[in-house]
Amino acid sequence: MGTLRLQKKRIYDPPAKTDGLRVLADRLWPRGVAKADAQIDVWPKSLTPSSELRKWFHADPTRYDQFVPKYQAELDDQAADVDAFLSQYGQQTVTLLTAAKDLQQGHLSVLQAYLEQASAKRAATP
Hints:
Elements: E1 5-10, E2 21-24, H1 35-38, H2 51-59, H3 64-77, H4 79-89, E3 93-98, H5 107-124
Parallel strand pairs: 1-3, 2-3
Helix pairs in contact: 3-5
Protein name: DUF488 domain-containing protein
InterPro entries: YeaO-like
């Protein structure tokens, strides 16, 4: 049985063979990217921050420490969608894509950690 392998990168970086499943993890389509060129396999909007939370965080990126638990709570509320995503794609390499410039202190890091933890819990459950 394979395991989930998550990586993250900007949507503006060229697609690579090592990307595996390319998942757009932004609620809005990124500016300046043609849908035909993006090579997006899945766009699970329910796993992205809500519009309200996204706007709140983008207004003041220094709120990252407050953003993390808020976004985790939103993901908790989407547990069925998280489970469905992991059931369908959790046995392969998944590249989470975003238009955001900061890959370390943004929603992608939170989503990656959340999916990794949820995947580990699933693997540990008989």
